[in-house]
C-alpha cells in the first residue's frame, strides 16, 4: 500500500472515534504486550543478528524495559486521560475550568538502529495511550529487527491504527513530505534538523530525541573500583552505540591513574582476555560506522584495546589517554566503544570545558563532594543524567527523558509519553447566572474599575 493510502486509512480510523475510548487504548496496550511476549525469542534473535546483542542485553535494554513501561501505562492511563478540573479566576465567578487531554490524530514515529526495537516501540506506547493512530518507521540499518517489527505489527494490529513502513532515505523523504499531526523522531542531530524543517512546512509539532557528546566527570576521593565498573558497563553496553553512553571522561588528576587501572581490570572481568570471543560484546552496525570509528583511533595514546576487524565489524573496548579538544575523537559524538580521557584540576575548569560545547543529552558525575555536585547540577545544562552511575536514569517511568538544545526537544517515558502525544485542551464552562457587563463596550469610565481588578 502506498504511503498516502496508509495515512488516509489512519485518518479515517482516527475520525471514527474508536481511539478516544480509554478502554480501547488499554486493550491495544495489552495486545502490544502479548505481541512482544509471544515473539520475544524472534525479537532477541533479530537483535543478535543486527548487533550481536546477547539475549541478556537485548532483554534488559529493549524487551524488558518495554514490558515494564506497558504495565505502568496500563495502570495509569485512565487517570492521565481524565479531564482535570483547575481553578477559575474570580472574574468568572461560578464558572468551571478543565484541562482535557486529547489525541493529536495520526503520528509519525521515526527510529534509529542502535536500540531498534525499544526506540520504535517505546514512543508507540505513549501514542496508543494518548489515543493516536501511528505510523512507525524503523531504521533500514537494523534490517532483521525492522523486519520483525513489520511482521508482528502487521499480524496483530489494524493498519488503520498502527502501521509500519519499511525503507531507507527515500521513504523517509516521502514520509516527511506528508502532513502528520505529530512527528516523534529519534536519531542524529543532522537528520533531526531535516525533520524539523520538513515539519515546519505544515507547522507539525515535533519531539526530537537526538544525541551529542555526553561527559562523564570523575572527581577525587571516590571509590574508583565501583566507578570503573559503572562507567565500563555504560560505555561498552551495545559496544558504545548508545545515545546516552558516556562519550568521554573528565577525570580529576588525583584519580586518573587508579581509575584507568581499575577500568582495565573491569574490561577484562566483563569481556575476558579477548573481547572478540565474548558472547556478551556486541558489534558495530555496519562497515560505514566501523570506518568512521577506526579513523578516531589515531587520537591520543591508546591505553587499552584499539584492535579492529572489518570483517566481523569488531572494535575492541578502547581507552585513549592524552586527548585534546582538537583531536578528531572530540569533534563529534563518538557512538562506539572508544573512551577518551581528559584530565582536570578543578571543577570550575570542568564547567567551562563542558559549557564550551553543545548542551549534552546526558551528564554523569562520580563524586562524594556535595559542593561539587551542586556546582555541576546548577551550572551545566544537560538533558538528564546520574550521580554515581551511568545510563540508568532513562530506565525510570517516573522521570521524563529527553534532551535540551542540540541534544533534542521534548521528552517521553511514563506520563511524559502520554503528555507528549496529547494536546491539552483548555475549556472554561461559563455560568449563565451572571453576566457582569464591565467587559463589554462602551468602556467609558470603566478603566479605573478594571485597574482595581487587574493590578
Ligand atoms: P539517523 O539520524 O541517521 O537515522 C534516524 C532515522 O532517520 C532512521 O529512521 C533513518 O532511516 C532516518 N534518516 C536517515 N537519514 C535521513 C535523511 N537524510 N532524511 C530523512 N530521514 C533520514 O540516526 P542513526 O544513525 O540511526 O542513530 C544514531 C543517532 O541517534 C546518534 O546521534 C544517537 O545519539 C541518536 N540517538 C538518540 C537517542 C535519544 O533517545 N535521544 C536514542 C538513540 C539514538
Considering the chains and any ligands shown, give keywords for the structure.
alpha/beta; 15 helices; binds nicotinamide-adenine-dinucleotide; about 40% helix; seven-stranded mixed sheet; about 450 residues; globular; Aldehyde Dehydrogenase, Chain A, domain 1
Please, could you describe this protein's structure?
The chain is of the alpha/beta class and 455 residues long. It folds into 2 domains: 3-210 and 404-427, 3-Layer(aba) Sandwich (Aldehyde Dehydrogenase, Chain A, domain 1); 215-395, Aldehyde Dehydrogenase, Chain A, domain 2, CATH 3.40.309.10. 41% of the residues lie in helices and 18% in strands. It is built from 15 helices and 18 strands. The protein has helices spanning 3-15, 22-38, 40-51, 55-81, 118-129, 143-156, 169-176, 189-201, 224-236, 256-271, 287-294, 347-355, 370-379, 415-420, 447-453, and strands at 84-86, 96-103, 106-110, 133-137, 162-164, 182-186, 206-209, 215-218, 248-252, 301-304, 308-309, 314-315, 318-321, 338-344, 362-366, 384-387, 408-409, 422-429. A 7-stranded mixed β-sheet has the order 10-13-14-9-8-15-16. The chain has a 6-stranded mixed β-sheet with strand order 5-4-3-6-7-17, sandwiched between helices. Strands 1-2-18 form a 3-stranded antiparallel β-sheet. Helix 13 (370-379) links the parallel strand 15 (362-366) and strand 16 (384-387). Helix 2 packs antiparallel against helix 4 (55-81) and helix 3 packs antiparallel against helix 6. The longest helix is centred in the first third of the chain and has 27 residues, at 55-81. The radius of gyration is 25 Å and the shape is globular. It binds nicotinamide-adenine-dinucleotide (NAD).
Amino acid at each position: 500500500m502506498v504511503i498516502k493510502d496508509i495515512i488516509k486509512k489512519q485518518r479515517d480510523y482516527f475520525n471514527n472515534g474508536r481511539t478516544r475510548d480509554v478502554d480501547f487504548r488499554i486493550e491495544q496496550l495489552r495486545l502490544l504486550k502479548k505481541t512482544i511476549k509471544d515473539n520475544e525469542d524472534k525479537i532477541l534473535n533479530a537483535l543478535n543478528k543486527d548487533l550481536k546483542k546477547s539475549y541478556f542485553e537485548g532483554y534488559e535494554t529493549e524487551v524488558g524495559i518495554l514490558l515494564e513501561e506497558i504495565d505502568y501505562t496500563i495502570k495509569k492511563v485512565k487517570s492521565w486521560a481524565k479531564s482535570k478540573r483547575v481553578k477559575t479566576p474570580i472574574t468568572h465567578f461560578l464558572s468551571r475550568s478543565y484541562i482535557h487531554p486529547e489525541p493529536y490524530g495520526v503520528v509519525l514515529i521515526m527510529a534509529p538502529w542502535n536500540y531498534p526495537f525499544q526506540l520504535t516501540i517505546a514512543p508507540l506506547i505513549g501514542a496508543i495511550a494518548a489515543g493516536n493512530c501511528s505510523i512507525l518507521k524503523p531504521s533500514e540499518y537494523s534490517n532483521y529487527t525492522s523486519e520483525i517489527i513489520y511482521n508482528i505489527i502487521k499480524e496483530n494490529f489494524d493498519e488503520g491504527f498502527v502501521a509500519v513502513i519499511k525503507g531507507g532515505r527515500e521513504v523517509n523523504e516521502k514520509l516527511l513530505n506528508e502532513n502528520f499531526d505529530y512527528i516523534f523522531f529519534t536519531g542524529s542531530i543532522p537528520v533531526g534538523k531535516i525533520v524539523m524543517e520538513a515539519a515546519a512546512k505544515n507547522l507539525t509539532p515535533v519531539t526530537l530525541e537526538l544525541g551529542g557528546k555526553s561527559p562523564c566527570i570523575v572527581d577525587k576521593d571516590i571509590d574508583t573500583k565501583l566507578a570503573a565498573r559503572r562507567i565500563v558497563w555504560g560505555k561498552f553496553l551495545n559496544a558504545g552505540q548508545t545515545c546516552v553512553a558516556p562519550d568521554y571522561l573528565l577525570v580529576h588528576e588525583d584519580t586518573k591513574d587508579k581509575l584507568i587501572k581499575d577500568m582495565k581490570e573491569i574490561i577484562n572481568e566483563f569481556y575476558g582476555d579477548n573481547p572478540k570471543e565474548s558472547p556478551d560484546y556486541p558489534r558495530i552496525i555496519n562497515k560505514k560506522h566501523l570506518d568512521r570509528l577506526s579513523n578516531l583511533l589515531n587520537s591520543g595514546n591508546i591505553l587499552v584495546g584499539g584492535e579492529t576487524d572489518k570483517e566481523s565489524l569488531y572494535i575492541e573496548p578502547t581507552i585513549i589517554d592524552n586527548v585534546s579538544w582538537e583531536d578528531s575523537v572530540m569533534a563529534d559524538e563518538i557512538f562506539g566503544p572508544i573512551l577518551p580521557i581528559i584530565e582536570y584540576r578543578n571543577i570550575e575548569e570542568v564547567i567551562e570545558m563542558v559549557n564550551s560545547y553543545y548542551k549534552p543529552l546526558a551528564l554523569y558525575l562520580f563524586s562524594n563532594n556535595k559542593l561539587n555536585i551542586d556546582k555541576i547540577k546548577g551550572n551545566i545544562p544537560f538533558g538528564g543524567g546520574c550521580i554515581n552511575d551511568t545510563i540508568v536514569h532513562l530506565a525510570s517511568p517516573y522521570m521524563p527523558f529527553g534532551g535540551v538544545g542540540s541534544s533534542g526537544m521534548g521528552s517521553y517515558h511514563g506520563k511524559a509519553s502520554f503528555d507528549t502525544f496529547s494536546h491539552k485542551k483548555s475549556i472554561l464552562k461559563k455560568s449563565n447566572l451572571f453576566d457582569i457587563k464591565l467587559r463589554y463596550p462602551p468602556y467609558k469610565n470603566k478603566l479605573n474599575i478594571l485597574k482595581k481588578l487587574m493590578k
